[in-house]
Structures are given as structure tokens and as C-alpha cells.
Automatic annotation (TrEMBL):
Keywords: Phosphoprotein, Transcription, Transcription regulation. The modification 4-aspartylphosphate is found at residue 41. Signal peptide: none annotated. PROSITE patterns: RESPONSE_REGULATORY. This is Response regulator. GO terms for biological process: phosphorelay signal transduction system. Pfam families: Response_reg. InterPro entries: Bact_response_regulator, CheY-like_superfamily, Sig_transdc_resp-reg_receiver. Residues 1-101 form the Response regulatory domain. It comes from Reyranella soli. It comes from the Bacteria.
């Protein structure tokens, strides 16, 4: 699913940087200040999940906007960020991200 949404967003004008885990995402975000939006699954490999990533972003990069997704039950702590449930249509994710970028 990650590859599909990454390809769709890239084809529609987004500059996409992929990360396989929250730890990878944090490394990228520490090195690249051009990232403006983060779209993350809540369930991710590694010690940190998508909610943990969003919390880290809030502390370290509060300028970034985060959109979370999941196909499973959503932890109550995820309610602090915009959310789109799986399954989703790539067009819907694109629309949400564009709206978030404009705010």
C-alpha cells in the first residue's frame, strides 16, 4: 500500500520521501527540513509506531502536519491528529493532504 500511495502522490505533484519505519522517518526528518507533511500508518515496524512518530514530530518538528491511517482499531491517543481509515482511495489521501498543506 505504501508504494501505491507514494506513486500516486508523486504523479500528482508531491515530492515524496518514503520511510520503512518510524525510526527511518525520524532520521529523515532530522536531516531534511523541506518536508512539510507526513502521512503515516499507525502500525509500523520497529519500536516506535505512527502515534509515537506523530508525538516526536510534535516535539521536534512542530511545523509539520501529520495525517495518520490504520486498518485496525485506532488507539485513543491517535485522536490528536487527522486520520483517514483504511482502506482508502489514493485520491482521498491526496485531497486531505492538499487541504492540510493549505491551512
Amino acid at each position: 500500500m505504501r508504494l501505491l500511495i507514494a506513486m500516486h502522490l508523486a504523479e500528482h505533484g508531491f515530492f515524496v520521501v518514503e520511510a520503512a519505519s518510524a525510526d527511518d522517518a525520524m532520521t529523515i526528518l532530522q536531516e531534511d527540513d523541506l518536508v512539510a507533511l507526513v502521512f503515516s500508518d499507525i502500525q509500523m515496524p520497529g519500536e516506535t509506531d505512527g502515534v509515537g512518530l506523530a508525538q516526536w514530530i510534535g516535539r521536534e518538528r512542530p511545523d509539520l502536519k501529520v495525517l495518520l491511517t490504520s486498518g485496525r482499531a485506532v488507539p485513543a491517543t491517535a485522536g490528536a491528529w487527522p486520520f483517514i481509515p483504511k482502506p482508502y482511495r489514493p485520491e482521498n489521501v491526496e485531497s486531505r493532504l492538499r487541504t492540510m498543506a493549505d491551512v
